[in-house]
Amino acid sequence: MTEEKRKILIVEDDLGIRTQMKWALAEEFEVLAAEEGPKALEMFDRYRPRVVILDLGLPPDPNGASEGLAVLEDLLKLAPLTKVIVASGNEERANALKAVSLGAYDFYPKPIDPDAMRLIINRALHLYDLEEENEQLVKGQTSPLTGLVASSSKMMSLCRTAERVATANIAVLITGESGTGKEILARSIHDLSARSGQNFVAINCAAIPDNLLESELFGHEKGAFTGAVKQTIGKVEQAHLGTLFLDEIGDMPLSLQSKLLRFLQNRTIERIGGRKEISVDVRVLSATNCDLAAMMKEGSFREDLFYRLNEVSMHIPPLRERPGDAILLAKYFRAKYSKDFQRAPKSFTTEALAIIGSYSWPGNVRELENRVKRSMLMADGKGITATDLDLDLPADADSALIPTLRQIRMQAESDAVIRALALTNNNVSDASQLLGVSRPTLYEIMRTANMVIKRKDRS
Ligand SMILES: Nc1ncnc2c1ncn2[C@@H]1O[C@H](COP(=O)(O)OP(=O)(O)OP(=O)(O)O)[C@@H](O)[C@H]1O
Ligand SMILES: [Mg+2]
């Protein structure tokens, strides 16, 4: 597979260094170079490289201010995610620290070692990718509906249906297993509708005891029954002009079903103990994971109510029938919770992703969300593993999960490198001697394993 080389920009006034760096990095990256600030900004704006290596020792501007720092600020204004690595001589240490405080990704003391620089650039690109992916996922740009993440074709067509039905004032019955996202879909429909500026009022018919449900729905007047110490407005009225979401509608007792039906026919309610009829304008969405057809047959759900609620039906398939969605959702929740918990985003290991993709997710999206959330707190290594997710390898683990010899070798190599670096206090020369390889080879192994080490400043 040939991948396009990724662009980096070198800003350096010394022709010798510029040429040397270009030469050393050109094999791996598409290297752009500029010798002074305005040119650098122009090239940056045109090519938008994700990583910039910036010489802080650019000649100062006519007012004597640091040109390097000015360029840094301008670059970050144009594209805040850009990773700027500042290269500085010893005498510019103070400026280098200032640069980092202004948002530079890292600083690197001159003279520049191209091998180490390659490692830093790759690390910076990796971080850039993660951050960019996070931004997109958190914005929910992966589906046409805000906050609803999906990529499978079944969900995409469901999203399109949602867009179509949202604008019409029709009742939608949403079905699907527990945790598949019925409520989030109902909210999306509301958000897409002309009523989006008004209330979205949800009532969970299964969570409220039968004897309280009527008052919860329609409200009551003061003194209507023992304990009715003040007038209370019901959910239906609260949703006036907006959307009423009847969750777990299959759990509504028969007596209330007829009252609800009456409301849907007349569009007026009477609070319990009240005398006047109140007109209410709501759009009704409902959801259930019960088999309403079976319930109608046995007489526990009214058929006439069903047809009122089910002008359009939308069925959300279980997560196991939505190829690709589990992995996408896992990444979305990782991004979301790394933001919430203010943790650096960790990637999933390849094995963890394979398991996420093949697991059956009986608890659907809710289960996935909970596992990812917990794993963010558990993971202490470089990446989130299947163990952190508390997922076992399936008994019939397919061959994709059996590591190739190459993977085994790479893992062994990277384990040895980690040990050697730990033993030598991150001294790459000593570590390479210990391992009996050259420094470039060691850097290569580290690069392939996506490893970073804390550089010691050469003083
Ligand atoms: N496509 C999705 N994108 C992002 N988050 C989702 C998606 N689907 C579900 N979720 C999240 O998963 C959790 C469960 O979703 P939701 O409450 O909508 O499911 P449900 O079908 O109503 O479940 P239940 O039947 O148990 O009430 C919520 O935290 C929700 O935000
Ligand atoms: Mg729900």
What do these coordinates show?
This protein is an alpha/beta fold. The chain has 4 domains: 6-139, 3-Layer(aba) Sandwich (Rossmann fold); 153-317, P-loop containing nucleotide triphosphate hydrolases (Rossmann fold, 3-Layer(aba) Sandwich); 321-353 and 361-392, Helicase, Ruva Protein, domain 3; 405-448, Arc Repressor Mutant, subunit A, CATH 1.10.10. It is built from 18 helices and 16 strands. It has helices spanning 15-25, 37-47, 67-78, 93-102, 114-139, 153-167, 182-192, 210-218, 235-238, 254-266, 292-298, 303-309, 325-340, 350-358, 364-378, 405-423, 428-435, 439-448; strands at residues 6-11, 29-34, 51-55, 83-88, 106-109, 172-175, 200-204, 219-220, 232-233, 243-247, 268-269, 278-279, 283-288, 312-315, 347-348, 383-384. A 5-stranded parallel β-sheet has the order 2-1-3-4-5, sandwiched between helices. Helix 3 (67-78) links the parallel strand 3 and strand 4. Helix 2 (37-47) runs parallel beside helix 3 (67-78), helix 13 crosses helix 15 and helix 17 crosses helix 18 (439-448). The longest helix has 26 residues, at 114-139.
